[in-house]
Batch of 3 targets.
Target 1
Amino acid sequence: MPTATQKVVVVGQGYVGLPVAMRAVEVGSHVVGIDLDATRIAKLAAAESYVDDISNEVLRSALESQRYLPTTSYLDTAHFDVAVITVPTPLRESLPDLSFIESSAASLAPRITPGATVVLESTTYPGTTEELLVPILEQGSGLHAGEDFFVGYSPERIDPGNKKWGFVQTPKVVSGVNPVSLGHVQAFYDSLVERTVPVSTPKEAELTKLLENTFRHVNIALVNELAIFAHQLGVNVWEAIDAASTKPFGYMRFTPGPGVGGHCLPVDPSYLSWQVRRRLGQSFRFVELANDINDHMPDYVAQQLMAILNRTGRALNGSTVYIAGLAYKKNTGDIREAPSLRLIELLLDYGATLMATDAHVEATRWPAGVEKVDLTAQTLHRADVGVLLTDHDDLPLSVLGKSKIPVLDTKNAISGANVYKL
């Protein structure tokens, strides 16, 4: 079984992989953090964290321990005991793109030695671990999974910015391609987190992740569509949600917004829908309907901005729009699949000039065509309309509330004479 002094490879040093790497260093492992983004590796080597949940101090401590090596080279992974794959699995033209998993597996395979364990954490459809990952590992290593080395799947449950439920505190679902593999996978995560939850096979673990995010995706779509209709009916949907949230049973609070972002909600349910259509020849109607509603929320926000400007006698074409917050989630810099990106695309197409504030977003990931500014009264004087997309704690939202320009609040976070609600 794995020990704390083992050599651990974590492929992918982003919002999922970096917390895993730091925790493994903390419990005594020697960790190699692989990422093909040379800019990110350079920052990690300089103790500059780009993941909000990992401070520069934690990163510096890991480097000073000489048990953390950030690198772009798989040559540094030789003789590993455990490898954790946390690479992205995006959608390309609505189809799952598993190329990052395939390339990671192909690079690790020749370096697998008897007794090693490989765990996939990347979100994917049921069957990926056993049908895609294992054959690549076996072919490249010449060894047999479940006998010579061990393979499992453990879905990531990282919630960026969550101060209560971090990596250590969140129960970790674990699985293996056979019982002995499960034992090795569970032993590894038992050394990292407070509680592990074993399931029968990787398929159940893969489905667990998709179930969790499909649940959220569908419910967010419900309140998003409800918000649109409530606005048209002249009903305060936010007040209704607050009232419904007082019910102590049979209700879970979800709130509307400008759309969904990150890897989980815009992508994960589509993996399940794709697999159902591919294997069963049927449509997953709830997921497809939720996709349609959530994907078009940025369009609705753009329409609301048009309507607000029309009230002041202005067109969106030629107007300056100020955007507060670009990341998909509060107090994080994650801009993957963020609804702000689609809204920016729409507003630029309509001929608007754009300014935005978000101190959390990396400079290398700042969207083109958007001027980076601070949220001040002077900044707002240059704008014709504003929109709050992400209510980061470090944003002085009272400045928006006091502004003389109209502001669309998609988070129900500000009040003022010129504030309009989603």
Note: The longest strand covers residues 7-11.
Target 2
Amino acid sequence: MEDLYADKNGKVTALKQHAAGVALANAEADSKQMHDKGVIITGGVVVGNPTVTKVDVDRKIPNVTISTCLDVSGWNVIESDTKKPASLPSTRLTKYVIQAVVEKWPEGWKVIKDEPQGKAC
């Protein structure tokens, strides 16, 4: 995600190694929307306190649901042309709960769904 958001051309494809389905489609759409507005994001994300909330290994493709705190306070949202900080809402959450579903594919675990829960952590 970090590489995709930082590339104003949106040509980063490495995300496909880690995400699929709705999670991949949403990430690509979100980054395109930002890039179309002339915004890129640099910096890092911190994932804290991951907790497995559901396990379903009896399926053809096993999956696990994980709840975690996503800290995006280290992200720098900047205008891609001017390299100046973009204006952001003062009410924006920078540390929030996210719930993700990961599936075990032959090449490894992939995020197939991730949903911000709209609450701070």
Note: The longest helix spans residues 21-36.
Target 3
Amino acid sequence: MSDQRTIHELLAQYAESHRDPANELIHIVCVPLIVFSLLGLLWALHPLLAAVAAAAAMVYYFRLSVPFAKGMLLMSMVMLGVLAALPPIAVLPLSLAIFVLAWAGQFIGHKIEGKKPSFFDDLRFLLIGPLFVLSFLYRRLRWAY
């Protein structure tokens, strides 16, 4: 049986462990850095691998919400463009450093919040985290999702 929760339900469930303003701010900074660093780690193995991973995530995002998928597509394209512009030798060490520091920030945020990360209960929330951050931008711009 597949899970048919809507984007609104998934974001509401994700938000349950992200209510503290400090934790929210940490997520707004660290989640995009984690996405970038993960794409960078894949890019270091082979650029096509990073592009395939981004495309696979887009399939999920387009099924969930076209407005969010468009935002994530733009973000992914910018991140892949930045990776392409970096000296190849810098991608792996930079991505590793960002990955470790951003995850440390995430866990500090959850320590402040006093709640475990959502992905401990459902790995899908690793894909919802970036949408949670994007939802802040969408609300600020008053865009519907």
Note: The chain has a mean pLDDT of 93.
